[in-house]
Design brief:
By secondary structure, this protein is of the alpha+beta class. Helix content is about 35%, strand content about 15%. Helix 15 packs across helix 17. The N terminus and C terminus are likely disordered.
């Protein structure tokens, strides 16, 4: 569809007050070509190099500062193909209203100057054709583009597709505080432009165009090479550390891991990215978070490790964080809060304990890791509700005896402390409890019914606690099932892209120039320092199912309890979504496991 309204579709010839100057190779007539049905300004791909972008630098003179109440008196524009100036456009415009004396004094444009000048309705189609397919540039672009768009809407034209490039904003990111301000005259002096601004549209557009070229040269040295990166630089809110964007210039456009270092070569932050160069540059585009600002203020060097794909980057990031503990990687250090449940069958009267680490060398049984000791406590309480093993923390040998607690009289503890149960009967209960972890159907049904009964009795706080206990236990049981075959010896998987992924005990074999790999097998349950690494492998394999090429442990899951686990977790997570809760099974106190 043509951009001209029906009444305007006849070809027009500009009068002697409108000047369009093209190179001979581009046009041979002053008659504007007919506006065709294409976008005036193409939304170009962000990856296009700047030297391939068409820019139209525009400047307006107006009767005042309001796009609603004031009118345009002059339009000047210059077109650049990359760094080469190829054409200019200039015309006076009849504002169809008196020009205030103050404006005449400032610009030299009077009512007499615009007498007989074409109207904006006559001029606009020619300007749109001149700017077609280009990125609009202006100094204080919100003013000029705001006036143009307001008038386009009044004339039933579509507005200019954005965003426009503002040389004032760009200068504030690139050359301030080397210049005292970002006024056009100041920047023209800084870049020593041939044309100086005079408050006339074409001269100011020419000066702005030369300032733009100077800013693009500075941007190139700072690593800004594409239109998308230029847009980011214009929208960046923070200037103090923007020049450090040059540290990312040599980084590859590939997946991998990046490492921020300070002047002492200490690792500040480790991150992963699908495009290393683009991701690192995004830190310098004005993220207002204090933590990010502190990070970029401290960084003096950025290293990159290219990887074969996303999974290798995830694993390498996890290993580097666990090894170096960078102070800005808050999330990556959560593993230090992880906890386990431990039951040692060699004890006289075994019981569940919350442990900070898992020693897989002995005979002890471990569940976990849990995200916190609070989550571990919830799962512990769920097991103790179902099986009356002792809960007291007092050390007990085979012949240790002392007065029982209230739980014994309530029938919720076997109470070996006063000979209510013998060693054989107690161990039979412990054996049944451990068996229920392998086939948890009856255990889950029991806990689920107890939660429902509390809810029916309107004991809602107790029901909520029972629900959290059930959720914590179900989560760890399901996760341990997934991890068992993933960490069971050697495993080779062909990814969807055909890449062969080799695992040994859950640890991905990959090239690592930092010396972190090769590493020992992870095992199950994973230690606190390897839990995040196993988590990213588990998550990636679930999201990117591939073909198993070889394995020591069959990639299978026990049937018993699988359906019940899935149903329980599905119901709990659905309830979380309905109530806007996070964390899977609620927020709990890290010391007691109780809901806050």
């Amino acid at each position: 569809m043509s951009l001209l309204r029906p009444a305007d579709r006849a070809s027009r010839r500009l009068d002697d007050r409108t000047h369009v100057r093209y190179r001979p190779a581009l046009a041979t007539s002053l008659t504007p070509p007919l506006v065709v049905g294409e976008p005036v300004q193409t939304v170009l791909g962000e990856a296009i190099p700047l030297d391939e972008v068409s820019f139209v630098v525009v400047d307006l003179e107006t009767t005042g500062g309001s796009p609603v109440d004031d009118a345009i008196t002059e339009i000047g524009a210059v077109r650049f193909e990359g760094a080469e100036r190829v054409a200019s456009f200039q015309t006076l415009v009849d504002p169809e209203r008196p020009i205030p004396p103050a404006i005449t004094h400032l610009t030299g444009i009077s009512d007499r100057s615009v007498a007989g000048a074409p109207s904006l309705a006559t001029v606009m189609p020619s300007f749109l054709e001149f700017a077609r397919g280009a990125v609009i540039v202006a100094h204080n672009a919100s003013f000029d583009v705001g006036f143009l768009n307001a008038n386009l809407l009044r004339m039933d034209y579509p507005t200019l597709p954005g965003p426009a490039v503002c040389t004032a904003k760009l200068a504030r990111r690139l050359v301030w505080p080397e210049v005292p301000n970002v006024r056009l005259r100041t920047l023209a002096g800084y870049f020593r432009t041939r044309v100086q601004p005079t408050h006339r549209a074409l001269q100011d557009a020419e000066a702005t165009g030369e300032v733009l070229q100077g800013l693009l040269d500075v941007a190139k040295h700072l690593g800004i090479g594409t239109l998308g990166e230029l847009y980011h630089a214009c929208s960046a809110r923070g200037r103090p550390n923007f020049a450090k964007i040059a540290l990312a210039e040599a980084l590859p456009r590939a997946p991998g891991v990046y490492v921020f270092r300070d002047r002492n070569d200490e690792i500040l932050y480790v991150g992963k990215a699908k495009d290393l160069r683009a991701r690192v540059k995004s830190y310098f585009y004005g993220d207002e978070r204090k933590k990010v600002q502190d990070l970029v203020a401290s960084v003096t060097r950025i290293d990159a490790i290219a990887t074969r794909g996303e999974l290798e980057a995830l694993v390498l990031e996890s290993r580097l964080i666990a090894r170096h503990l960078p102070r800005f990687n808050a999330q990556g250090k959560r593993w230090r809060r992880y906890a386990f449940l431990k039951l040692d069958p060699s004890e006289a009267w075994p019981r569940w304990k919350v442990a900070r680490s898992a020693d897989l060398e002995g005979d002890a049984v471990f569940l976990g890791p849990f995200g916190s000791s609070g989550r571990a406590t919830l799962a512990k309480e769920a097991l103790e509700e179902a099986f009356p093993v002792r809960r007291c923390t007092r050390s007990m040998g085979r012949r240790t005896r002392f007065a029982p607690c209230a739980l014994a009289d309530m029938g919720r503890c076997l109470a070996p402390c006063d000979d209510r149960v013998g060693p054989d009967a107690y161990r039979a209960v412990v054996a049944a409890m451990l068996a229920s972890l392998e086939a948890p159907d009856e255990l889950l049904v029991l806990l689920d019914r107890r939660m429902a009964a509390l809810a029916e009795q309107e004991r809602f706080e107790e029901a909520a606690l029972a629900r959290d206990r059930l959720g914590a236990l179900a989560e760890v049981l399901q996760r341990s099932r997934h991890d068992r075959w993933l960490t069971g010896g050697r495993l080779s998987i062909a990814s969807a892209t055909g890449e062969a992924l080799e695992f040994v005990g859950g640890a991905l074999r990959c090239e690592d120039p930092t010396g972190v790999a090769p590493v020992a097998p992870i095992g199950s349950p994973a230690g606190r320092d390897r839990a995040d690494e196993l988590a990213v492998v588990r998550s990636w394999v679930r999201r990117h199912p591939g073909r198993v090429l070889a394995c020591d442990e069959a990639p299978a899951e026990r049937v018993a309890g699988g359906r019940q686990l899935a149903e329980v977790l599905s119901r709990i997570r659905a309830a979380d979504d309905r109530h806007g809760r996070t964390g899977g099974t609620g927020t709990t106190d890290g010391r007691t496991g109780r809901r806050r």
